[in-house]
Every structure is written in C-alpha cells, then in structure tokens.
Amino acid sequence: MITIKNLSKEFKLSKEQRKEQATDRKFTRAVNDLNFSCKPGEVYSLLGPNGAGKTTTLRMLATILKPTSGSIEVCGIDAVKHPREARMKIGFLTGSTGLYARLTANEIIDYFGSLYSVSSNTLKERKAYLYDLLDMNGFANKRIGQLSTGMKQKVSICRTMIHDPEILILDEPTSGLDVITAASIIQLIRDYKAQNKTVIFSSHIMGEVDLLSDRLAIIHNGTLKHQSTMEEFRKEMEGQSLTGAFIKIVQS
Amino acid sequence: MIFKIFKKELKETIRDRKTMLIMVAIPLLVFPILINVVVGVSGSFNESASEKILKIGIIGDSNDLIVKQLKSIPASFGPKELIAYKGDSTRLFKDQNDEVIDIALWYDSGLEGILAAQGTANVLWAIDNTNIGYSERIKGYMNIIETEERLKRYDELGIDEQKLQPYRITYQNTASDRQMLGELAGGILPYIFIAFGFLGCMYPAIDLFSGEKERGTIETLLSTPVQRWKILIGKMLVVVLSGLTASFSALFGLFVSIEFLDLIPDPTLMAVVSKILTFPIIIKLFALLLPLTVFFAGIMIPISVYTKSFKEAQSIITPLNIVVVLPAMLGLFPGIELNYLTACIPILNIVLTTKSLIAGNLDYILLAISFLIMLSVAAAAVFVSIRQFGKETNILN
User: Fold this and answer.
1) Which position among A130, A249, B156, B344 has the lowest Cβ density within 10 Å, counted as fewest Cβ atoms?
2) Closest partner residue to B224 among A59, A107, A115, by Cβ?
3) Is the ipTM of this complex over 0.90?
4) Looking at the domain B52-164, which fold is it?
C-alpha cells in the first residue's frame, strides 16, 4: 500500500533558467499538492505529457528526491522520515535504462541483490525465477555493453524485482521496446498484480494503460487533473479514444 | 556495504581500458622509456662532443709560443686543429660568426716578449657557450699552458713554489652522498608521485560520479537502501586506490629502470640509490601519500558530482592539475626546507618531508605536523564530498 498526501516539490531556478523562462521567481513547482493512494493487488497509472511532473513524483515515491511538503506512506512506513526502510519495500525502475556497461547481467543482479541484503539462497531462487520469466538465461553472462535495448530493459526489470519488493514503481517501462519485449513486461506486471503487490507506473502508451490499469491519474504542470478507476474513465470517454480523452483532460 | 560498493566499482574500473592505461601502463613505462632516451641521447652527445675536432682560429702565426704550447697538449685532452690568421682579426671573428671555425684565439702580438720580460700578456678566447663542452675544453688547455709558464717563472725568480702558498685549503663536504642526493634529487620523487597520483585519481573520480550521472546509473543506485555517504566512501576508496596504484606503478618503473637497465654506472651512487629504495622507506612514502591521495580524491569528487557530464568534469579537473603541481614544484628548489611554516603548507609539506626522508635527516615532529595537516585537509575534502553528494540537485541531471 502506498499513500501520498498533499505532495509538493519545488526546485530552485538558476539564473540561466530564470532568464530562459523569463521569470523573477526563484523556485519552480514541479509537483503541486498531489493526493492518491494505491492498494495491494492494484495497478495505478500515472499519465501526463512531457514535463508534467510524473518522473519527479515517482522519484519522490522512490525516496530519491525529498518532497518540499506533504507525506508519503509506504506499507505503513513514513517514507520521508525513514527513506531507507521504505526503499527496502520498493523496486524502482528509472526512465533511462541505467546499467553498468562493463559488468555482466549476472554481476549486476548479484550486486543489487547484495545491496538489498538478499540472502544468497533467496538470491539464487529469485534469479532462477526471474531469469526464466524474462527469458534471460541466454545472455545472463554477457556484458551489458553487448546487449540490445530489450535485453537491457529485461536486466533492469530483473534488477528492480530481485528483492521481491511490495511496491513496484516503473517509469515508462516499455518505452523504446519492440512489441514482443513490451508484451513480456506487460505480462510480468500482470503477474505481479496477481501476487497482491502494488504497481505504480507512468506511460505514454494509452493501449498499455488500458490493458493494465485498475486506476489512473492524469497530471499536468504538476497538478492532478483527473483521478478515477479505469472503468469510470472508460465511461467518461463518451465514445472518444483513450488518447482523445487524455488530450481533452490535459487541455481543459 | 562500503566494501560491496568498493568491490563492484573496482571491478568496473579495472575493466575500463582507458583508466588502466592512465593508472598502470603509462606510469609503469614512463621512467624506463624516459630514462633510456635521456641517458642514450646525453651519452651519445657527450661522446660526440669529446671526439669533436675543435677548429681553433689563431690571430698570429703557427710558430708563436702559445700556439706551440697548444700543439704540445696531448690529444687525450680533446683533438684540435689550429688555423693561423696571421694578424687578420676581422677575418678571424667573421669566420667564427660564419661557423668556419669553432673558436677564435686572440693574443697580444708581442706575447713571447711580454712573457720573457715577466709581464702579463692578454689572451682572449672567443667561445660560443651554447656549444656545450667547448668552454671546459679551452679552460683545460689554458690551465696546462698557464701552469707551465708560471712554474718556469718561479724557477727564473728562484722562488720556492711552496713558499707562495700560505694555506693548504680543503673544502670538505660534510653531507653524505645520501644527503646530497636527497637535497638535489629528493624533490623529484614526491613530485612524480603527486603528478601520477593526481592523474591516477582523475579518471575514476570523473567516471564514478559524473560518468555515472551521464549514463543514468546513479539514480538506480540511489534507489537502494544504502546510505549515500556509504556509496560515496565506497567509490572514493576506488579513486584513492587508483591514485596510489598510479604512484606505485611510477615507482616500480623507476626501480626497474635503475636496477635492471644499468643506468647508473657510478657504483657509489648506485649504492646510495639502493639504500634509498628500501621497503621501509617505500612504506613511509606511501603512508605520506595516502592522505595526499585522499585529498586529491576529495577535491575531484565534489567537482565531478557537481558537473553534468564526463567532458565538463574533465575540463575543470585537468587545469586543477597545475594548481596542485605548483606547490610540489616549489619543493624542488634547493634551499626550501621543511620547517614549522612549510610543514603547514599542504602538498609542499609532503614534498619536503619526502626529501628529508630520502636524505635521512627527517625531523619527526615536523613529520607529525605535515601528516596531521594533510589528514585535516583530506578530512575536510571528504566532508565537502559527502555534502555535495548529499545534495539532490547535484546528483540528478
């Protein structure tokens, strides 16, 4: 379970940025008073155009960024006050596939397993399970620099899930992937949901949102524009496509 | 956790060919190559300079006394060819300018008569001193001629040469060979360590912070439950180890050059060098280098953390090299000694302490001050690094 209340994030503007934006303001508000919660066994989608504040929100949930105000509760833990404890419960997949090019996939998984203090037996079991699930056995001992984008994303997802987190936060997990790899990742998210885990993900691909989401939120300029169940959203579409409904909400 | 981070970063660093080249290969090979080239070039130069037949233009005739005396000097003092200009001083000096002759010799026209009358004759040697070795050779010739003439005059005057010598002076060098080497060449060793230590730290410091930011891997690392200061220390240890490895490789290269390439022909000097390059001295050297290398890592990491790309970090850290090497160069000057003031100047104190260590006249109080000063600046640099690494605006692009 993850609950956020009145979550806001401000960034200081540099002189150059103030000049570029033609403003005298010293701060810019990337996220403004967000409220939502996501229960176990639920997939929550965060939608918004570029620069809407999705990544900043996900980074705050993953405790990489500290909120300017508001609270985040992760499985009953105050994530702002106790970020390390909260991180143990979270698996965070960043937008850019950040992997070490000079290490093998196996070395990366072992490294992150050790950082999450996963015991060697559990690590072995988790690796066997995830390698089969993601079809990684063929390239587990290859260096990341030699892998394709799809293979790298599989390693990233495996890395995110190696400590069996309660909450999975995925920032555009299928971005730039071919349909087959994207389908396997979609299947993995479904499996995770079936295990009564919490999944929050951001995406630009409306078909993917439609397939996976139980609930969704649309944010624009850091502000929550819409929040509902997927079913309610479909009803409100009034015959429009998902993309059309999304654009209408953003522009309203 | 720090060790896990260190182990992974070290593995990645070792697999980076560029870093390994800077860290090990270049420092290891630079001395054998450099010393071989310098010794080879200077050896062949000295050989050709001593074998060169000096063309000496003389103002007078080949029968003049000084010319006869010059001719009688054995070829072992350097071969020469004498060309008489028979009073034509304009042509003599023009020919020297045009490099037809190497050296011009001018003397009073009645030189033989002046000497016979026990007077003082003027002799002028026109030498282009950019030609190394010419001046020394001429001074050697003149010393023989002048001594011969002086002794002849003592005989004529019936003077006992001994009676003209009220003092028999001996200037004894009380410094040992080791002290001399420590003073003259002792500064070079720490200078080398500082230069290579800095270079060795540079690439990992940029790669492990700025590079990781650029590649987007830092965000993944920060989402783990490891405290940020532990991540920083784990990475910093790799940077420090790289700096020390570069310094050690340079020392090893120097040791191999001296021990196996037979570059020091003087056995006394070789014995002194062997006495310096002992295990306890090397350990002490590295003990001094440790806080210095931590300091280097500590000034590079905040820059690397602050900058957004590898290139940007490199463009700031590279000129910093000059700032760091400047105080090290000061220590190379003779006369600058380790005292209470210089012991308080970071980097310079390490150079001077190492100099004293090599010369074998180390003051342990000054050593302690130098070490504490370096420890303090290293601790301050680590503190700044931790603060910079803790700032979220610095670690995410």
Assistant:
1) B156
2) A115
3) no
4) D-Maltodextrin-Binding Protein; domain 2 (3.40.190)
